[in-house]
């Protein structure tokens, strides 16, 4: 029988050698690939990965600079940064959080909102990261914490800068305020500019001069360990403080105007007609901007937003009002540039006016009429019939064209954000409405009613153009920008618009003379403020009639805005002013006394208030009309 061997030693040795060879080749290939990869990472990509490693080890932490101060023309501080203490907790250093909070309640005030916000922030941060428990500690609270700091494990007291408006709501619509940067602003087109900053200007010069005020951010490079904890500071780049702003506004003059408005809805704008400097910019009611800095409570904001008087509305720039009779001098100026108009030619005012071939009557404010009236009397006594006839004669296109010369219907270019254009019924606007324009609409536009809408700033700007010999100056709130280190001052240069067209050389002199009679004339509508005035004032009163059918009223009720525009002293005015008091009745009674007080303060250095009995007598003599 043939015997079959159970084992072939030779073949097994060959198979084993083959496997060893394959394994060696495979191992050599893997080792070669590993060496090649290691070489690639260590040589070719060395700089890239070294940078990543360094970035993981070193964390740049921004250092916020001090925001620039805002001061009035006399150096009164209106906005500044001041140091506040914040209380922070490092959770993983605290053995018992409940016990710690209990100890802190005996040292500082901790309300439910503070604790709720603290717990919410705890959930959003890592245990080794500092979490803010309270901001803006008082000096007494900070002192108590500092004394007991060794017994409070995990507690840290830090000082930082906080924006403050020491005069509260004074000039808030001109200054504006800052508030925390929102997620949308952090991710918007300007996100890189705001990196490292906590707050940003929202309104007023805080917003329009954000670049100058914010300064330049600083950084410190902090070495971190593998757990993400800060070990030490390696490098520090100090921040550069923002520039300081000096405003043209006089804080005391601003306060006088706000006090006289007494939180009634309205606005006051005063300008230097020679330079365009904004001397006062008042929007009433006012509100305190300080709660907005760290985030106003929902209940408080809702109370402001739903207030029917609209304290959050910037009436000086955004309030749109029918100008009433204050628009008459500008229509008179347009007529004075024609050959057919003669200022000394009289017309008869029977107390009403009607268009040719029409029976509809347009009434004068004086029901029995004023008799024979020329331009001087028409402005002095505010004759509506005179300006009805003048409007029909000129036509809406000419009227609108001259209003645009005075800046109505356009932004003035003031260095504040959000200004409205107003509304002038030009031919382009009429065409865009796709509605017919009737002669009656031209007639009522001639006394400042109808679709014509202006802002208080535009009214003051237009009066300033008359006062400055027909040259409009761009209104400027900021006077100078000061570098806090070098103290170098960069002044804001006045800018002049093209002068008003003037085809009669003496037209401005005639118009200002007639406007002076509004205050000084025996029948002047604002003669109530002329008592003991040591200088001459040219002005014009106005009453804008408004129909209102808002909820709470039964039927239609007539409510009037009181207006007054003025310039002084004549013949070389140094102040131009516009005052609007909403729903206050007559401009002579409600608006003119405010203008007088501010002009007195600016020109004389004091308000020069009359004794109470004399003041009541003079007010009683004022004409109760537009």
Overview of the structural elements:
The protein is of the alpha+beta class and 626 residues long. It has 2 domains: 61-247, Penicillin-binding protein 2a (Domain 2); 251-621, Beta-lactamase, CATH 3.40.710.10. It has 24 helices and 21 strands. Strands 2, 3, 4, 5, 10, 17 and 18 form a 7-stranded mixed sheet that branches. Strands 12-11-21-20-19 form a 5-stranded antiparallel sheet. A hairpin with an 8-residue loop joins strand 14 and strand 15 (362-363). The protein is elongated, with a radius of gyration of 37 Å. It starts with 8 loop residues before the first helix and ends in a 5-residue tail after the last helix. The model is unreliable at 548-557 and 609-626 (pLDDT under 50).
Radius of gyration, rounded? 37 Å
- Which fold does the CATH topology of the largest domain refer to? Beta-lactamase
Tally of helical runs: 24
Average pLDDT rating: 85
CATH homologous superfamily heading of the largest domain: DD-peptidase/beta-lactamase superfamily
How are the SSEs ordered, and which strands pair?
Blueprint: H1 9-44, H2 46-57, E1 58-63, E2 70-71, E3 77-89, H3 97-105, H4 112-124, E4 131-137, H5 139-147, E5 155-164, H6 172-175, E6 178-180, H7 183-186, E7 199-201, H8 204-208, H9 210-214, E8 218-224, E9 230-237, E10 244-247, H10 251-261, E11 266-271, E12 278-284, H11 290-293, H12 298-305, H13 315-318, H14 328-336, E13 347-349, E14 352-353, E15 362-363, E16 371-373, H15 375-380, H16 384-394, H17 396-405, H18 427-433, H19 439-445, H20 456-467, E17 478-482, E18 489-491, H21 507-520, E19 538-548, E20 557-568, E21 575-581, H22 587-590, H23 592-604, H24 612-621
Parallel strand pairs: 2-10
Antiparallel strand pairs: 1-8, 2-3, 3-4, 3-5, 6-7, 8-9, 10-17, 11-12, 11-21, 13-16, 14-15, 17-18, 19-20, 20-21
